[in-house]
Design brief:
Helix content is 70%, strand content 0%.
């Protein structure tokens, strides 16, 4: 085979320069199409941050939910007291006498002790938590109104004591003290967070 035979043959494949020219033509066509159509900005989807997802904005629904839960538990308590008093209604002439020597069946006593126990619905912890949640909801989440809410809770306690006819049971005072402490902590934590931001 001679050298002339190899050099004189035209290849069936495009040369490097032909391939490069074709790629350049495609690139120019793509750029022209992008220029004709313009650039479209597509923003990334906003992801909710932890603070956004846990931030409460609808306080009216919280208040409504708490009122419904309270009504359900009040009905349960009322049924318990009705059972207890229906057995003794004819024995006493006054309310004070009725509660002085009250007779309680074992099942009712066990349920009442469970309800006012440390983890019970009417216990200090859960009741004070509900008082604080209600105060926060009524204030619209504004910690600057914590003192106002504390005064309202104490006023309600005083009215209940007056209706009772004297001092309320010790559990009531412990509940008010716990709620007051939690509201003070809420107010102070919001104030310290504001000071850090400033």
């Amino acid at each position: 085979m001679s050298v002339n035979g190899i050099t004189g043959v035209t290849g069936a494949y495009p040369t490097t320069s032909e391939t490069a020219t074709a790629k350049n033509a495609e690139s120019v066509a793509e750029k022209k199409t992008a220029a004709d159509n313009g650039v479209v900005y597509e923003p990334s989807s906003k992801k909710a941050t932890d603070s956004d997802s846990t931030k409460v904005t609808d306080y009216s629904s919280i208040v409504a939910k708490m009122k419904q839960q309270q009504a359900n538990h009040n009905k349960q308590l009322q049924n318990l007291v009705d059972q207890l008093l229906s057995k003794q209604a004819n024995k006493y002439t006054s309310l004070a006498e009725m509660f002085k020597n009250i007779e309680v069946d074992p099942a009712t006593k066990a349920q009442a002790q469970k309800d006012i126990g440390e983890d019970g619905y009417w216990g200090v912890k859960q009741t004070s938590d509900r008082l604080v949640e209600m105060a926060q909801a009524l204030s619209g989440g504004d910690a600057t109104k914590a003192d106002e809410m504390i005064k309202a809770i104490k006023k309600g306690y005083d009215q209940a004591a007056e209706a009772w006819g004297g001092e309320l049971p010790d559990i009531c005072q412990k509940t008010i003290d716990a709620a007051t402490e939690k509201l003070n902590q809420w107010r102070d934590s919001m104030n310290s967070a504001t000071n850090v931001i400033e």
